[in-house]
Write a structure and sequence with these properties.
By secondary structure, the chain is an alpha+beta fold. It has a single domain (19-185), classed as NADH Oxidase (3-Layer(aba) Sandwich), CATH 3.40.109.10. It has nine helices and four strands. Strands 1-2-4-3 form a four-stranded antiparallel beta sheet. The protein is globular, with a radius of gyration of 19 Å. 29% of the residues are buried. Bound molecules: flavin mononucleotide (FMN). The site of flavin mononucleotide (FMN) has 11 residues, from strand 3.
């Protein structure tokens, strides 16, 4: 996407804006360059700064690198998503911790009453806020991956129930997305149209 006239309103600078947004694409093919644990930790160090309700931070992840892990994951992926994961240096299974409230006393000062209340709820009752805030953190994570000069390939095309039974048999974590991460190969097609500000906003 070309730099529009309002460039001067973006103090971040064109290079960073291109890296994070304008030039960044959802990757489906990757180079062989590995992604280190150090890179993942550096990305998380950024991502964890993003806001969540009551600072609850429910996103959890499984880093799938090994041949055995890849085989296990691939069984649950639909169609071409199998090839996409197979060609990525690693995949992240991104999940919501439905018992996220256990961390709240350490994460949110004065949260003991909130913890006590949430502890009376079932996982199903905590699920709505857990999922909403996990999705929020997934958005931060995609941008964080890009900030590290890497590309993210999100995939929701998989058998959620089967993957969760396999990876999270105790039911505490619920997967939302599989994210391939690596150095991207160029896409074979242009970016699909995006809605304009006038289409998505109302002023009152
Ligand atoms: C939540 C989510 C789920 C997605 N699921 C899949 C998927 O299962 N398979 C796939 O190939 N792409 C998937 N995508 C990629 C989207 O098609 C892609 O992000 C969108 O077309 C924009 O592409 P761009 O980032 O290259 O502009 C998914 C993206 C998101 C954000």
């Amino acid at each position: 996407m070309s730099a529009p006239a309002y460039e001067s309103l973006l103090p971040l600078g064109a290079e960073a804006v291109d890296l994070l947004f304008r030039e960044a694409r959802s990757a489906s093919r990757f180079t062989d360059e590995p992604v280190s644990d150090g890179q993942l930790a550096a990305i998380w160090d950024l991502v964890r700064c993003g806001p969540t309700a009551f600072n609850e931070q429910p996103l959890r992840m499984v880093v799938v690198r090994s041949a055995a892990g890849r085989t296990r994951l691939a069984r649950h992926l639909h169609g071409q998503n199998r090839d996409r994961a197979a060609g990525a240096p690693l995949s992240l299974v991104l999940a919501a911790d439905l018992d996220f409230h256990r961390e709240l006393p350490a994460l949110y000062p004065g949260a003991q009453p909130l913890f006590d209340y949430m502890d009376t709820l079932t996982r199903e009752q905590r699920r709505e806020t857990a999922l909403a805030n996990t999705w929020l953190q997934i958005g931060y994570l995609i941008v964080g991956v890009r900030a590290a000069g890497l590309a993210a390939g999100p995939m929701s095309g998989y058998d959620n129930a089967a993957l969760d039974r396999d990876f999270f048999p105790d039911g505490r974590w619920e997967s939302l997305l599989v994210l391939n991460v690596g150095r991207a190969l160029p896409k074979s097609y242009d970016r699909l149209p995006r809605l304009g500000y006038e289409q998505v906003s109302r002023t009152c």
